[in-house]
Each structure stands twice: as structure tokens, then as C-alpha cells.
């Protein structure tokens, strides 16, 4: 037997080498890198539905042929049912027509569907047209950017300096500046 314990130190590498077939596969699998170096996004619909965000102060712009027509500001924005739907709180929007007249819109809540280019405003919607000195009040307004139509399916009150109109529904074509009022229309001059 060896008298000096320091001479036993050479036995440790020998024992590791002899026992390596037992422990080496487990250590190698533990230390091997997982995945790849390629950055991939998980586009699983179930995973996409769980991606949520909350933003303070958001601005959405919509333009046609290089001209910015809509600038929609909101105090806060949250993803909706998926990440392609944005729900907004305290919405303040500005629409610029072809003749550069401005229309200002405010509402308590709103939603924007990115894929459909559909803006929906609800709760205390107020539309002001300073050039025509008109104001419109409603609880729900839908704007479809593809057709340039604004639709209010509920009660609408339009007030101007020389008339007032109350209707149960309003369709407004922004491209031709034409109103279609229906459902118990009352006009006062």
C-alpha cells in the first residue's frame, strides 16, 4: 500500500476514465444545447391569443394614397381577443377630408380591427365639424376604411346653428359627403 496519500491522487483520473461509460451519456445530454440558433416565432393560434399588451398613449394613423386621413389618439390601449384587435380608452380622433376640412371625434372607448381596417367608437361619441358648425352625438359609431363609410346603428342627434336632426340610424359616406338617415327622423329648423 502507498504510504503517502498524495500518491493516491493519480487514481482519481483513472477511476473517472474507467467509469465514463456509466456517467458520460447523462452528462453529455444534460450539457448539450437545446433548440437552434434560428429565431422562430410560434404562430400557433392558441399561443397568439394569449399575447397581450397594455400601452399608455397610442396613436393610430390611416392614410389613403399617401395622404393621412385619420389620426386616432387614445389615452390607453389593450389587445382585444387577439393581437390584431386594439381596444382603446378615451379616444380622440381627427379626420382630414379631401378638401382638407377637419372633423374631430371624441369617445370614451374604441376598438380598431387591424386586418379589417374597422374603427369602432362607443360611449359618448361626439363628432364636431367646425367648418360646417355641426356637432353629432351618438353612443356607437363604426368606420369602415375600405368603403369610407361611417355607420351609427343607434340614436343620432345632429345639431347645427340653423337646424337639428334626430334619427334612429345614420349612414355617412365620407367620399361623397352624403348622409342617409332613417328610423324616425325628426328635423327642426
Spans of at least 5 consecutive residues with low confidence: none
**What composes the largest sheet?**
12 strands, antiparallel
- CATH topology name of the domain at 66-188, in short, is lipopolysaccharide transport protein A fold
What is the molecular shape? Answer: rod-shaped
Order of helices and strands: HHEEEEEEEEEEEE
Mean pLDDT: 83
Q: Terminal Cα separation, in Å?
A: 119 Å
Q: Please identify the top-level CATH class of the domain at 66-188.
A: Mainly Beta
Structural class: mainly beta
Individual helix count: 2
Helix content: 10-25%
The appropriate CATH architecture of the domain at 66-188 is Sandwich
SSE layout:
Layout: H1 11-31, H2 45-49, E1 54-64, E2 67-79, E3 85-96, E4 102-113, E5 118-129, E6 134-144, E7 149-152, E8 156-160, E9 164-167, E10 169-173, E11 178-182, E12 186-188
Antiparallel strand pairs: 1-2, 2-3, 3-4, 4-5, 5-6, 6-7, 6-8, 7-10, 8-9, 9-12, 10-11
Overview of the structural elements:
- The chain has two helices and twelve strands.
- Strands 1, 2, 3, 4, 5, 6, 7, 8, 9, 10, 11 and 12 form a twelve-stranded antiparallel beta sheet that branches.
- By secondary structure, the chain is mostly beta strands.
Amino acid at each position: 500500500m502507498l504510504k503517502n496519500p498524495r500518491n493516491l491522487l493519480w487514481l482519481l483520473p483513472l477511476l473517472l476514465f474507467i467509469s465514463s461509460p456509466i456517467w458520460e451519456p447523462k452528462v453529455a445530454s444534460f450539457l448539450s444545447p437545446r433548440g437552434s440558433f434560428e429565431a422562430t416565432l410560434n404562430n400557433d393560434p392558441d399561443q397568439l391569443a394569449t399575447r397581450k399588451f397594455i400601452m399608455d398613449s397610442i396613436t393610430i394613423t390611416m392614410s389613403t394614397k399617401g395622404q393621412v386621413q385619420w389620426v386616432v389618439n387614445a389615452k390607453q390601449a389593450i389587445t382585444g381577443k387577439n393581437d390584431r384587435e386594439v381596444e382603446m380608452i378615451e379616444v380622440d380622433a381627427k379626420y382630414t377630408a379631401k378638401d382638407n376640412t377637419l372633423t374631430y371625434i371624441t369617445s370614451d372607448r374604441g376598438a380598431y380591427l387591424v386586418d379589417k381596417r374597422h374603427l369602432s367608437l362607443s360611449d359618448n361619441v361626439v363628432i364636431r365639424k367646425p367648418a360646417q358648425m355641426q356637432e353629432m352625438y351618438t353612443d356607437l359609431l363604426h368606420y369602415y376604411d375600405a368603403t369610407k363609410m361611417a355607420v351609427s346603428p343607434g340614436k343620432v342627434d345632429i345639431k347645427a346653428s340653423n337646424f337639428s336632426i334626430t334619427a334612429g340610424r345614420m349612414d355617412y359616406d365620407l367620399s361623397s359627403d352624403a348622409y342617409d338617415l332613417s328610423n324616425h327622423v325628426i328635423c327642426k329648423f
